[in-house]
Amino acid sequence: MPHNRAEILLGITGKDFTIIAASKAAMRGATILKTTDDKTRALNKHTLLAFSGEAGDTVQFAEYIQRNAQLYSMRNESDLSPSALAHFVRGELATSLRSRKPYNVNLLMGGVDPITGKPSLYWLDYLASLAEVPYAAHGYAQYVFPEIRLERHNMNQWVWTGADLCFYRYYCLSILDKHHHPDITLHQGIKILTMCIDELKRRLPLDFKGMVVKAVKADGIVDIEFDDDKVVKCA
């Protein structure tokens, strides 16, 4: 399992776009190493990859995929579709998983098919699982915290007796499930993303230094100016 989970990845699809958001903080445990980290890589004009997981593995694997996608485009004078790239990445993860030193990375891949114009989002994890989804999260955005059970052993000592598996807290997936629909506009997608980020700020004792937000549309990948300090009154 990837060691570093103090990262946030979010993905949302809409009518003609896919939004990918990633936290800016590069962390090791409780230590912030960098406050302007970009956890995304453009694979081609219509596909964007976001990554989280073990430091070193993430950048190396993402740039390996990026270089192979660019090599294919140069050789064939055409870009792979988001679906083709997702299955290529899944194959590379599956091959790595069966080696002595597998990559410990979790990925979100978003894009828009240049022929059909259909947006897509793919969720991949370090076990080479692949799923096409309307919205997705990795790291603390989808993290579940079990209700911890403690019992008093004596006057000065508490003993951990397990975790109650009936009480899980999904921070963002419930908001996405409530507000997402296939025909949302880019403005509505940013609004839903703002709800998710505000919820994380309320619930987590963690400063993830804001979000890098990018949108993939039919005409390419664009950077979105995101207000990290905006407060949402109700989700």
TrEMBL record:
Keywords: Cytoplasm, Nucleus, Proteasome
GO cellular component: endoplasmic reticulum membrane; nucleus; proteasome core complex, beta-subunit complex
Cellular compartment(s): Cytoplasm; Nucleus
Gene3D superfamilies reported in the protein's UniProt record: Glutamine Phosphoribosylpyrophosphate, subunit 1, domain 1
CDD domains: proteasome_beta_type_2
Keyword Transmembrane helix belongs to the record: no
Matches recorded under PROSITE patterns: PROTEASOME_BETA_1 (PS00854), PROTEASOME_BETA_2 (PS51476)
Xref: InterPro entries: Ntn_hydrolases_N, Proteasome_alpha, Proteasome_beta2, Proteasome_bsu_CS, Proteasome_sua/b, Proteasome_suB-type
Gene Ontology terms, MF aspect: endopeptidase activator activity
GO terms for biological process, alphabetical: proteasomal ubiquitin-independent protein catabolic process; proteasome-mediated ubiquitin-dependent protein catabolic process
Sequence similarity: Belongs to the peptidase T1B family.
Function: Component of the proteasome, a multicatalytic proteinase complex which is characterized by its ability to cleave peptides with Arg, Phe, Tyr, Leu, and Glu adjacent to the leaving group at neutral or slightly basic pH. The proteasome has an ATP-dependent proteolytic activity.
Quaternary state and interactors: Component of the proteasome complex. The 26S proteasome consists of a 20S proteasome core and two 19S regulatory subunits. The 20S proteasome core is composed of 28 subunits that are arranged in four stacked rings, resulting in a barrel-shaped structure. The two end rings are each formed by seven alpha subunits, and the two central rings are each formed by seven beta subunits. The catalytic chamber with the active sites is on the inside of the barrel.
Name of protein: Proteasome subunit beta
Organism for this UniProt entry: Gibberella zeae (strain ATCC MYA-4620 / CBS 123657 / FGSC 9075 / NRRL 31084 / PH-1)
